[in-house]
Structure prediction request, 308 residues.
Amino acid sequence: MRPVHTALAVLVAAVWGFNFVVIEIGLGHFPPLLLSALRFLVAALPAVFFVGRPKVAWKWILGVGVALGIAKFGLLFTGMAAGMPAGLSSLVLQIQAVFTAVLAAVVLKERPGRVRMLGMAVALAGIAVAAVDGGTSGPVLGFALVVAAAACWGVSNVLTRKASPPDAMNFMVWVCTVPVLPLFGLSLLLEGPERDLAALRALDWSGAAVIGYVAWVSTVFGFGAWSYLMRRYPASSVAPFSLLVPVFGMSSAALVLGEGISGLRWAAAVLLVGGVAVTSLAPARGAARTGSVSAGSPPVAAAASPAP
Prediction:
């Protein structure tokens, strides 16, 4: 990769890592489901009027919109609101690579070889260590919700691979339109109109900056830059930079939010990041040569965007 593109990949990883800190700050302004709804509303508008018509079938847009927008982000934001630390969330969420690999083996027939199986085992060991650390530093429910969010992310990755969108930015913007109304509805139902209205009435520059960052910087810029790099270079060249996301997430949470990084968390990070690296980058065996998937395609876990 050219140095300027290497710098861009590192910048995107930093943007996505710091995004967990911004989410944590945003949860002090908004209920989690309302914050997620506002993120997608601002990310979709006005961009949807400039990207043109959808270039894939609506079933894929709706499927990814539900799995990624409603389920993954709804669970992630709710888990963090329940007390899951921002830095630990940025780390645990990377287990999506294991969920993606397992689902790809079932749905896409990308059979994992021994190396990928070993990578998944190491990553799961990292999750076990992170769970022990989470049990001493945060509520179990929050940890479980973030793991569930990672599983939903795995579903969205496989659906995205099946959709094979020719224009990733067009696809992402249209996907952002799907969760808006359902998330607003869930927020009204579960968080209450009084709480939502109070948060919107108290909107200040800090709250607006949070929404702007998670919508425009993390989603529009981050995904757009990542898609640009994925179009120019092989997935095996770009995907390793996603492993920097929890590094930036944990370090920025420590610097900005004062979160401590225990020895257990460092051990979990080494195991999880190492396992994810092997799982994402090792080639799959015997991938089906039908539909949008071929044996020569990069692993779906490596090709997926790691945007939080």
Observations:
- The chain is about 75% helix and 0% strand.
